[in-house]
Amino acid sequence: MKIIRKDVAHCSIRKDGRKVTKLLEMNIDSLSSSMVLYHCDVPKGEFAEHYHAKSTELIFFPEGGKIKVNGKLYDMNPWDGVLLEPGDRHGYNESECKDIIHFAIRIPAEDDKVEVQECPSIL
């Protein structure tokens, strides 16, 4: 698991004036040739704790939020992200019932989500 913080990422200004922030660079050759990109609107900010058996998942929070990973709670600023390896338990429950938006990329694009049943509340 790796937390990705936008405020410490490398930023450059291109000749045309674009501000480009490199949030993550990684080699995916060994992972798979398939991927899936999700945009999720999560009502009341509740997303049940789960893990992926085979997939690596990258989740970004455009408006910020909170996520619990492997038992530890992380505050996410706008556009912060988290890189999750297979088996990393994750989910969230925003205590103020705030709707959460996140973008997720999963590699490979497999349906390998496993719900965590032993823990009724993740916060």
From TrEMBL:
It comes from the Bacteria. InterPro entries: RmlC-like_jellyroll, RmlC_Cupin_sf. This is Cupin 2 conserved barrel domain-containing protein. It comes from Lutispora saccharofermentans.
